[in-house]
Amino acid sequence: MDFMKEIERKLDLPAAEKAQVLRELRSHYEELRDKLIASGMDADQAEQEAAQRLGDPEDVAARLRTVHCRATWKSALLAAFPFAGLVLIRAVWRATVGIGVTDGWLQVTLLPLVAACLGLLMISGSVRELVLGRRPIWLATWLATAYLALRNVPRMVLIANAGSYQQLMHTRSALLYGIENGIEILALGAATWAFRKSPKWRNFYLVLTLLDLGIAPFMNPIHDPTQVVLSITHRLVISSAIMGLALKLFAWHPYGNIAQSSLFLWVLSAPPTSLYTRWLGGTGYAVYYAVCALLMVILAGITVLIFARACTPQRKLVALSAGLLAFQQTDWLATGAWLSSIAVASSIVLLVWVVLIPMFLQRLRRGRRPEFAR
Amino acid sequence: MPAPTELVKGNALVLILSCLAREPMHGYRIARELDQLSEGYFVMREGTLYPHLHQLEKDGLIEGYWETVSGGRERKCYRITGRGKAELARRREEWLRFQMNVNRVLDPSPQAFSG
Q1: Could you give the CA distance from residue A24 to residue A273 in angstroms, rounded to a whole number?
Q2: Which domains does chain B possess?
Q3: Of the candidates B47, B55, B58, which has its C-beta nearest A55's C-beta?
Q4: Model confidence, pTM
């Protein structure tokens, strides 16, 4: 058994940290091996003895992961802060749309300003850390929530300029859709980049990106069946980008991480639960959005919990994908009853795709990474 | 006979700190010191030493630095920090009190019951 190769395979840490740990372990292993050889042992025996003295690579790797992946309360709170802030801003924005306050100062002035400030704060904080060569645990949530915050800023600013949402839809809807679809296509670009080392999957996402570039200009606003089909295709394509990333991450994990999958399952099932509340409540959008706001705050907490437990960029991305998915599903639910049914169906499909299939694959190929995870 | 694994695991941090309180050492040397000073009583898989070292480093009780020795081999050495020294003193005190009370219970002297 080659101890160093085995530990390198099992040690699931951020690249820079992993390199340092391996360097130190290698130094110990080589020193021990050389001392054994110097004492008269032959090289093969010395390597075996050194590996045995160092212990079970899986056990050592697991202990190292525990030490290096421990999130402090401070870092978890820093990670939670922007996400929870954004969720609350969005929930208030949604709730005021729901109860008909579409032209008030809160929605057209204060919320866009707060969202933009939050986005800029997160970007500047992230850039500062990157410039200083640091990769704190909260960096990924700051970047992701900055993306989410800034993605909503154009809509809010355009509404503020137009005076109301309805007015915007009459005058400048093409501009709004163009900006929002352009930002979503970036997610596909990110997936293409993430899968760059796997030609098959890279090409798959490249084709999807090109397909979506063709679809996006013609799908909004939804007036006829063709646009409905285009819109659903667009949503599926974007979902495939987000879920593809999540799939990669789950498959990467050497063990079937039941806790992570269970939390992910919860995140997935929460928006459909809010749909039932809407059906059963019978009091219209106000109750629906109030429940959604509460659920989204809980989702933010769950996502942060997963995030704090995740120690590699890949696993952090799973947590962020869960958050993004929850946002997206809630969007679907907000667009109307008929599309909500599709949202429930898609939740089931995505759940099977993201959680069950990777877990099944891990069972089949325990200890081996599937091709798409390399 | 080697010490029970759980006992070693539970006291590994204080054992490592006390080694480093004498002088800076690298992981391999710490493993040798523990083995020699305890005459083979504290046996641990040497790889499991590193999670403890990294934990101590993250807690600010020790600090690591790289050095190159003869033959060009690099190794990461650790030295105890001020906080580490304070923590070691606290743990030593705690250990002595614990040991004294365990001894009292294991071997109660007649005076303990006389009052």
Answers
A1: 50
A2: 5-106 (1.10.10.10)
A3: B47
A4: 0.47
